[in-house]
Amino acid sequence: MRPGSRICIGLCIVGLFCGAGRNAEAAVITGIGQFILPGASTGSLSFSPAVAPNNDNATAASPNTISTGLGPFLNAGGFGILDYEFVVAESGGTTEYAFTTNVINNTGVAWNDFHFELGFGTGDSFVAVASGAALDFDTPDRDPAPASSVFPTLDASSNRLDWSGATVNYLGGGAGPFSSAFTLSFDVPDGIAALNPQGLNRFTLRSYPTATPVPEPTTSALLVAGLAILASRRRARNARRPGDR
């Protein structure tokens, strides 16, 4: 288990897609397994039944949507990982989902970048999906392109999105911005259980901020500084007593 509380909160599920008793057209999300936030953070997560299953490689924004609404709020002690775990129906195709979120920084730490990753499991049990797998961030087309309201630089691969090039300040820490909105798409293929090391029809979207820590003096640096001061004082004493030699 990683540090931080597992808070399953505000799971607003707008209906469930059920494959029983009907012909499944594509791999679709049927439920939320877990929504885990760090520390005392709060938020909600909602999705609608897929209205356009088997729509992989659609050039417009997917009508199959997942959203976190106005949050989540990453509160004090909440500088850490958010895990969104989804339950998937086994079927015969690939469905593209549009994911939107607005992450608010109330952690007391300024963020220098932000990351999204696809994989399986949560917390310390999370395993990233292999690069090039069919579970991906709408690779290679990425249409529409992933976007951030704050970070201008994106390093994208099939299983990771890494944003950088700006700073999201924390509430009360000076000038804004204090949050960043993100839009991205991911493809959910059939056969998730075969990709998941636990053999489950579940996958996880992980996200987290990172920050550049303020460098602290190391023990060796302090030792060197102390020796330099002692040497300087010894030279000064010797300079005042030339007749002692």
Task: Describe this structure as you would to a colleague.
This protein has helices at 192-195, 219-240; strands spanning 11-13, 28-36, 45-47, 65-67, 73-74, 82-89, 95-105, 113-120, 127-128, 147-148, 153-156, 160-164, 179-188, 202-210. It has 245 residues and is mainly beta. The protein has two domains: 11-214, no CATH class; 215-245, no CATH class. Strands 1, 3, 4, 5, 7, 10 and 13 form a seven-stranded mixed β-sheet that branches. Strand 11 and strand 12 form a beta hairpin. The chain is globular. The N and C termini lie far apart (67 Å).
Write a concise keyword list for the protein shown above.
245 residues; mainly beta; 2 domains; 7-stranded mixed sheet; 7-stranded antiparallel sheet; 2 helices; 14 strands; globular; disordered N terminus
Quick rundown:
With 245 residues, the chain is mainly beta. 11% of the residues lie in helices and 32% in strands.
